[in-house]
Design goal:
The complex is a heterodimer of chains A (141) and B (431).
Chain A: E1 5-11, H1 21-33, H2 37-57, E2 61-68, E3 71-78, H3 86-89, H4 99-103, H5 111-118, E4 121-127, E5 131-139
Antiparallel strand pairs in A: 1-2, 2-3, 3-5, 4-5
Chain B: E1 9-11, H1 21-25, E2 31-34, E3 37-40, H2 50-54, E4 60-62, E5 75-80, H3 94-103, E6 108-109, H4 112-127, E7 136-137, H5 142-151, H6 165-181, E8 188-194, H7 197-204, E9 216-219, H8 220-233, H9 245-249, H10 255-260, E10 265-269, H11 271-282, E11 291-295, H12 311-321, H13 334-339, H14 360-375, H15 390-398, H16 408-430
Parallel strand pairs in B: 5-6, 5-8, 7-11, 8-9, 10-11
Antiparallel strand pairs in B: 1-4, 2-3
Helix pairs in contact in B: 3-8, 4-6, 14-15
The chains are: A alpha+beta (141), B alpha/beta (431).
Chain lengths: 141, 431
């Protein structure tokens, strides 16, 4: 059976003080596993974007890191509010970030497109009132 | 095969008390206390000198060249780091330091700040290339470059491939001296007057090229006393002072950024601060940033652990001395840009010292065991076990370098259980 490493990180809505901590731990883990620099950089960028999305846009959720011999997978699963129009949300420059988030430098509308660009595979599922799940994988070979 | 690593930073075992000061401060978790004494893990040490600064017992030292080392050469040139100028509070001009140095037995003095002038120009050229990953990261502080090799391997491509000012200064100084005096360049020894162990290590083990043009590194502290007295009675030859204010400004944090790219640059000093910002660069959070200048020491090179004066005094001294020109520009003649090897000749490689195992599967198994052990540890990060944090302790156990009972809290717990068992045993045998 393949060895799989799993780590879960709860991410609170609006918790800017701890925003980015999950990403830092995930990066450290991947460096210790010896994941190569090119993959590491792409995971770092996507991971921080997705973590910040949980903080800024969601009602809270969990970030999960999975590593198996072939790939690194990041899963972001939140408990709402859900995205009404995924196609629009995936458009570069589109953002629903609050004024508060914008003053912090977020809300350029590049989050989801950036994640997609950096991941080998990208999937987003969302239902209004239920939540959003983003699955990104990064091939290791 | 990689040759055995040379480190300027060393431990003097008999002075070490095995406390946790250095253990807790090492930015690459390279120190362990075992058998009551600190040990430095060679592969991880980046020679930043943090441990030298915090050791109360002066057990951490920097190995540098003694002044007598210059006698190996027929002709000797001193290459003072610009931070040296900040070491004398009542200094009126940079020429005083340069002439004082010459008086100490050097045939010539060549300012490393002049090397910084040339390097600044070379970096300006590099920044014109839009294809270089942004932000471009300064290569000036060898401790930061090594930090990136160990902890941020994915940012290596950002490091600018321009050599350090001391290297460029040594190349120019040697060639110019040999030509002017019609001597063999091999007979000319170039000695860097260093504020830090990281640069001394970089002379023995250069990072982006094979051999250093510098022949030795003498610490500021080694020459401070003698130089102080020479400064007072040295004749003043004003031709030695040639570097621009911008070149001299490299001595303090932010000086390089000013010299290289006045806009969209960021200067960070102190190694922990640098780590925080490098994390952000890694996450692509600093969009639009063109240039990142990181210095391991607080204040920049003026804060180097081998300096005499405190970094705040030195910093303001530098600011005063580097304000000779109301509109400073780099002092570089065009020939210098083509005549010398200003650029790295080999790629900087990641340092895999943080890796748990070469085999990914095995590394994942180890990671799982680490998580399990870590979850059972108290999480005090007290360092009593000899590892800097509970997490590194868990890693050390898995790597076979520690055992669970090295944790005094675990040990106490175990003793309590055993004591209870004894009591129980005593009670049952009495009946």
């Amino acid at each position: 059976m393949a060895v799989i490493l799993e780590k879960n990180f709860p991410v609170e809505a609006g918790a800017f003080t701890t925003a980015g901590e999950a990403s830092t731990t995930i990066k450290r883990t991947l460096k210790q596993l010896g994941v190569n620099a090119e993959v590491l950089r792409r995971v770092s960028v996507a991971c921080y974007e997705v973590e910040l999305n949980l903080v800024i846009h969601s009602l809270g959720g969990t970030l999960t890191l999975l590593v198996d011999p072939g790939k690194v997978t990041l899963i972001s699963k939140d408990v709402g509010p859900g995205i009404p129009d995924i196609e629009k949300a995936m458009t570069e420059g589109f953002s629903t970030a609050s004024a508060e988030a914008r003053t912090l430098g977020f809300g350029a509308g590049m989050g989801l497109p950036n994640m997609k660009r950096n991941a080998s595979e990208f999937d987003i599922q969302s239902e209004v009132g239920v939540g959003t799940t983003i699955t990104m994988s990064f091939a290791l070979t | 095969m990689e040759q055995k690593r040379f480190h300027s930073v060393r431990l003097e075992g008999d002075k070490c008390r095995g406390c946790t000061n250095c253990l807790k401060r090492c930015p690459t978790e390279a120190i362990r206390v075992r058998g009551g004494r600190a040990h430095i893990i060679d592969e991880r040490c980046i020679d930043c000198g943090e441990c030298i600064r915090v050791c109360s017992y002066h057990a951490k030292v920097a190995v540098t060249d003694p002044l007598s080392a210059i006698s190996r050469f027929k002709y000797k040139i001193a290459l003072p780091a610009p931070s040296l100028y900040g070491q004398f509070a009542d200094l009126k001009s940079i020429s005083q330091v340069l002439n004082g140095l010459k008086q100490m037995g050097f045939d010539d003095v060549f300012e490393v700040a002049r090397g910084a002038d040339v390097v600044s120009r070379a970096i300006r050229e590099r920044l014109k290339n839009p294809d270089l990953p942004r932000p471009v990261i300064s290569s000036a502080c060898p401790a930061i470059v090594r930090l990136i090799q160990v902890r941020f391997p994915d940012l290596i491509d950002h490091i600018v491939d321009v050599r350090q000012p001391m290297e460029v200064a040594a190349m120019i100084a040697r060639r110019e001296f040999a030509r002017a005096h019609d001597v063999n360049p091999k007979d000319v020894g170039c000695f860097f007057i260093s504020p830090c162990p990281a640069k001394v290590t970089a002379i023995r083990n250069p990072i982006g090229h094979d051999e250093s043009a510098v022949d030795g590194g003498i610490s500021v502290l080694e020459i401070y006393g003698l130089l102080s007295s020479q400064i007072r009675n040295a004749p003043i030859d004003l031709t030695l002072e040639q570097a621009s204010d911008l070149g001299v400004g490299w001595a303090r944090s932010g000086g390089e950024s000013i010299a290289v790219s006045p806009e969209n640059s960021m200067a960070v000093d102190g190694i922990e601060n640098c780590i925080r910002v490098l994390e952000e660069i890694e996450d692509n959070r600093l969009k639009g940033l063109e240039f990142f200048e990181g210095a391991a020491c607080t204040g920049g090179c003026v804060g180097g652990p081998l300096n005499f004066e405190n970094n705040y005094v030195a910093r303001s001294g530098i600011r005063r001395l580097a304000s000779r020109d109301p509109n400073p520009d780099l002092n570089v003649d065009n020939g210098m840009m083509t005549k010398y090897d200003l650029y790295d000749s080999k790629r900087i490689m990641p340092n895999s010292a943080m890796k748990l195992d070469d085999d990914l599967m095995e590394a994942m198994r180890k990671m799982e065991r680490i998580e399990k052990i870590y979850s059972e540890l108290p999480g005090f990060d007290c360092g009593s076990c000899g590892s800097p944090t509970c997490r590194t302790f868990a890693e050390d156990i898995v790597q076979g370098d520690a055992t669970k009972m090295d944790c005094i809290h675990k040990m106490k717990e175990q003793l309590r259980v055993m004591a209870q068992q004894m009591v129980n045993l005593a009670q049952t045998t009495r009946e």
